Amino acid sequence: MKKTITRKRKIVYIVLGSLLIILTGLRIALPYILLNYVNKQLTMIDGYTGHVNDIDVALYRGAYTIKQIKLDKTGGKVPVPFFAADIIDLSVEWKALLKGRIVAEIEVERPTLNFVSGPSKATSQTDIDNDWTKVVDNLLPVKLNRFQVNNGKIHYRDFHSSPRVNIEAGEVHILAENLTNAGQIKNTLPSTVKASATVYNGTVNLDMKINPLTTIPTFDLNARLSPVKITAMNDFLQAYGNFDAETGTISMYCEAAAKDKKITGYVKPIIKDLKVANWKEDKKNLGIKVWESIVDAVGWVLTNKRKDQIATTAEFTGNIDTPDVNTWVIIGQLLRNAFIQALYPALENSINLHSVDKKEDKQTLLERIFEGGKAKKNSNKDKK
After folding, report:
1. Domain range for residue 328?
2. Residues of the chain where predicted confidence (pLDDT) is lower than 50
């Protein structure tokens, strides 16, 4: 009897020992299996090739960490990667798991995104094929609910302009939460996105509410850029405008909302203390000096003398794929800012999802300038 018990114990020990050895072997081999799998997936993006240096696995928190990832455009004609990051951590979101929802979160450390403009498609990288979404789905077996970016960089580069252009947004921080509505919020826009970055020592802030569960873009956002010295943008101005600035700052405000394939919103740039031409100190040729004087003169005409600012509101509305921008409205706002009342440097808080359904106000240019059209129409309605 004792021999039978001893034999059964041995069998149990052998089975448990074998399982332990197999699991240990799998744990050791898993990072290499995942590394091979991830690198294979990165070859699936059309026009790009990717590589990952290393992968760590943390079974206790249901996560794996991708280290040193890089995505380059094929052909070798773009000298910088489209995307690179030190660390991408993909894991189960425990906060949602406690509520009975199995969803994932991604945290990206020190990523860099390079948009490149060039004279041909081979020398440009301004977008990426939709294949990348399939790759993300393959790398993440459950739905993404939370996405965070820490200390990132976004560049706009032109290696073929003269001078070369490199506009950088640094210290990029993004936090997107409740992307699958794991919090079960009963709201048209259940998810939130908050982002910030530094641009030429100014600060960009974005707040957005979205519904990522719909196939049609549905969102409400506002963004603002604090004053930036225009002189820091002189490479860009010289490359694309053939002039540079001596003094001045620019700030920008934007609101937009979209639903049912329609979008509405505005962008409001405000330029203060602008000076372009400097005949005494500039050692430029006569043609460039004359052109800069023309730019200066136009700027002077459109400047509100009391506030010393040039400003307009570029409104857009219509189909989300091809929104209409009314040039006459932009001109009207420029003239109104210059001669009647300076536009206020702040968000107007006039755009939301309800704004998308409003019919376009058919005002004339003069009505836009003097803003008498709306008041007149409303007073007529009140009389009736």
Report:
1. 228-384
2. 279, 372-384
